[in-house]
Write a structure and sequence with these properties.
Elements: H1 2-19, H2 49-60, E1 63-65, H3 75-87, H4 93-101, E2 105-109, E3 117-119, E4 126-130, H5 131-140, H6 142-157, H7 166-178, H8 188-200, H9 214-223, H10 248-275
Parallel strand pairs: 1-2, 2-4
Antiparallel strand pairs: 3-4
Helix pairs in contact: 1-10, 2-3, 3-6, 4-6, 5-6, 6-8, 7-9
Length: 294
């Protein structure tokens, strides 16, 4: 009987280890950040909108204002904001942001015109997000929502640039050498927000990152996100299809667990063979179907 227990346990360990491999995104979940941080607060589509609002405030230290946060129509936008914050939470970004800006206000509003967001213009010291405009953008490019959200937060991140801290001096030199990034922004401030926004939202449409932009990529990787990358290295294949991308680190840890379970199984089998079945109170199963008698 004990041997059967051993076999059941090691099979269970193998199944558990295999289950550690992250489940791919559902077919209806667009891929925006291919290699996000391991989820600490996974998005739950069953939560009511008010719970999502309070969850963002509690989990990541923001103040959320504006009626759209609790409007069911804008659930896709709130979901992107939630997932984006969780995706970058293993990096220094949010801690640095809060150290500079305190409890930042995220204001869900309608700005009007073509602008979908700003920092400090619509409302002082707040990131304002035009939810109706972003919902329109979401229909064709979910990555745009994440990219713009990070872009506007990053304007708050660089609010200390007038004092020329070391990171800004380094970036200013880089900007003087490399100039504009992509098609938007003709200043160092806008370019900084763009290179950070697109660094996170790798699957945003028309992402300018390529090996030609390695200097900006390497700067953001080292100076802003502490070495964390949100997709493959520049020049490597990038798949933005739902379910196509899972963190290599996650697979590595799961694979190690599977290997350990297999080794346990092999060790147990060797021990049974070496010491004899009687030690474990085990009787070999016969072809007639009889099994353990204990």
């Amino acid at each position: 009987m004990f041997a059967r227990v051993v076999r059941v346990v090691i099979v269970a360990l193998s199944v558990l280890a295999i289950s550690l491999v992250p489940a791919p995104a559902r077919a209806d979940e667009p891929v925006v950040i291919p290699d996000a941080c391991t989820a600490i607060h996974p998005y739950d589509a069953a939560l009511p909108m008010a719970a999502l609002q309070s969850g963002i405030e509690a989990n990541w230290g923001f103040t959320l204002t504006g009626k759209y946060w609790t409007d069911e129509t804008y659930r896709p936008i709130v979901a992107v904001v939630w997932r984006t914050l969780d995706a970058i939470s293993c990096t220094p970004y949010l801690d640095t942001l809060h150290a500079k800006a305190g409890v930042l206000e995220l204001y869900a509003t309608s700005i009007g015109g073509w602008v979908a967001g700003d920092y400090g213009l619509t409302r002082a010291d707040a990131v304002s997000l035009d939810f109706p405009q972003l919902l329109t953008n979401y229909q064709t490019d979910p990555g745009h929502v994440s990219r713009l959200f990070v872009h506007e937060m990053t304007h708050a991140y660089t609010r200390d640039r007038s004092t020329n801290p070391a990171y800004w001096a380094d970036f200013s030199a880089l900007y003087a050498k490399n100039g504009r990034f992509g098609s938007y922004g003709g200043s160092s401030s806008e370019t900084f927000s763009e290179v950070v926004g697109y660094y996170v939202a790798r699957c945003a449409a028309n992402n300018p990152y390529s090996p030609l932009e390695a200097a900006y990529y390497d700067f953001v990787k080292a100076e802003v996100f502490g070495g964390k990358e949100f997709g493959p290295a520049l020049g490597q294949p990038l798949s933005c299809e739902p379910g196509a991308q899972v963190s290599p680190d996650a697979y590595a840890s799961a694979g190690a667990a599977v290997q350990a379970a297999v080794q346990d199984r092999q060790s147990a089998a060797a021990e049974i063979a070496a010491n004899g079945a009687e030690i474990y109170g085990y009787e070999s199963m016969s072809t007639s179907g009889s099994s353990d008698s204990n």
